[in-house]
Amino acid sequence: MAAYKARVIHESYKGRLRPRDHYALGWLPRWGRLMTKLPMLPGLVNAVGAAPVLGNALKFAAGVDARRQIPRFAKKSAKSGLAKLVAEHDNAPRTKGRVLLWVDSFTDCFESNTFAGMVHVLLKLGYEPEVLSNNACCGLTWISTGQLDGARRQIRGAARVLAPYVAEGVPIVGLEPSCTAVWRSDAPELLPNDANVAALNGTVLTLAEFLERDDDFTPPDLSGHTIVAQPHCHQASVVGWQADRKLLEATGAKLVSVGGCCGLAGNFGVERGHHEVSVKVFENDLGPAIEAHPDAIVLADGFSCQTQLRSLADRGSMSLAELLATH
C-alpha cells in the first residue's frame, strides 16, 4: 500500500509544484546535514520550534500540524562521536572484525542514544564498528513523499558507496528499521537492474538479525521486567520481527508485542489534516498497551514510533541497542 501511495503521489506531482511538506519532510536528510554542519543552528531551530508563536509559524511553513512537537535536532552528528565512543571502550578486545553501521538521517541528526548504544554493544562483543565518511542516504523520505526520481538518485548513490563493503564481506547493520527495510523492498523495486542494489538485498541487517549470528552473544537477564515492544510497521511487513522476538523472549522478561501501528507512519501523522487519524490509530493498540503497563520498559526502534510516544503519551522509550547497552 505504501508503495502504491508513493507511486500515485509521484505521478500526481510530476513536473508540478509540490506541497510544502514534500520539501520540508521529503528533503529532511539535507536539512539534517545542514544542521549538524552549523554549530549554532540546531539550538536556534530547537528554541524556535518550542516557542508558541514562532513554533507554529515554523510548523505552518513546513506543512506540519500545529499540535505536533518538532523533534529536537542534535548539536552534532551522531557519527562524529564514534571515535570518542571507541576510546571509552579502549580495553575492549576487537577480534571479530569490522562492522559498518548504516546510520540513517534520523539517528544521525536528531537527539537520540541509539547510535551510542549500538556502538557499545558491538564493541563489547569484540567488533570494530565503522561509519561511512561519504554522504549516503537510502531515499526513504523521498519515497514516502512520492519523489521517486529523487529517491532513485539517492539509492543509486548510496549503493555505489556501500558496494566496496559488500565486496569485502563487511557486515552492515542498520539502526532505523524503515531505512534498513528500504534495501529489502523499495530499492530493488525502484532500481531492479542496478547490480549494487541487488548485491545489498538481504545484506543490511537489523541488530537482532546480526546478533542472532553471533554465538558469543547472550541476552541480558530481564526476569521480572515487562517489555512493551512496538515493532516498526515497515520492518514487520518487509524484514520481519522474528529475530527481535526471539531475542527479547530469551531475556526472560514478560513480552507484550503491540500488534498495530503507532499511528505516526513516517511523515503521515505530522502532516496537516492527518492528526486526528494518527491519534485514533495510536489509541487503538499502542496507547492502551502502555497504559496497561505503566512500569514497563517501552521498546521502539523506529524514530517515528518514539516520536509518537513522546508526543501523545509523554512516554520515553528505548531502542533495542539502548536496552542491550544498559542492561
In short:
The protein has 327 residues and is α/β, with parallel strands linked by helices.
Give a written overview of the molecule.
With 327 residues, the chain is of the alpha/beta class. The protein has a domain at 219-326: Rossmann fold (3-Layer(aba) Sandwich), CATH 3.40.50. It contains 20 helices and 7 strands. It has helices spanning 2-12, 20-24, 28-37, 41-50, 52-62, 82-88, 105-109, 114-124, 140-144, 148-167, 177-182, 186-190, 195-200, 207-212, 233-239, 242-250, 275-284, 286-292, 303-313, 320-326, and strands at 98-102, 128-130, 172-174, 204-205, 226-229, 254-257, 297-299. 44% of the residues are buried. The mean pLDDT is 92.
By secondary-structure content and strand pairing, the structural class works out as alpha/beta
How widely separated are the two ends? 38 Å
- Within the largest sheet, what's the order of strands? 2-1-3-4
Average pLDDT: 92
Shape: globular
Unreliable spans are: none
Task: Count the E strands.
Answer: 7
Q: What portion of residues is helical?
A: 40-55%
Topology-level CATH name of the domain at 219-326: Rossmann fold
Strand and helix order: HHHHHHEHHEHHEHHHEHEHHEHHEHH
Total DSSP helices: 20
Looking at this protein, list some descriptive labels.
Rossmann fold; 327 residues; alpha/beta; three-stranded parallel sheet; 20 helices; globular; 52% helix
Give the topology, please.
Elements: H1 2-12, H2 20-24, H3 28-37, H4 41-50, H5 52-62, H6 82-88, E1 98-102, H7 105-109, H8 114-124, E2 128-130, H9 140-144, H10 148-167, E3 172-174, H11 177-182, H12 186-190, H13 195-200, E4 204-205, H14 207-212, E5 226-229, H15 233-239, H16 242-250, E6 254-257, H17 275-284, H18 286-292, E7 297-299, H19 303-313, H20 320-326
Parallel strand pairs: 1-2, 1-3, 3-4, 5-6, 5-7
Helix pairs in contact: 4-5, 8-20
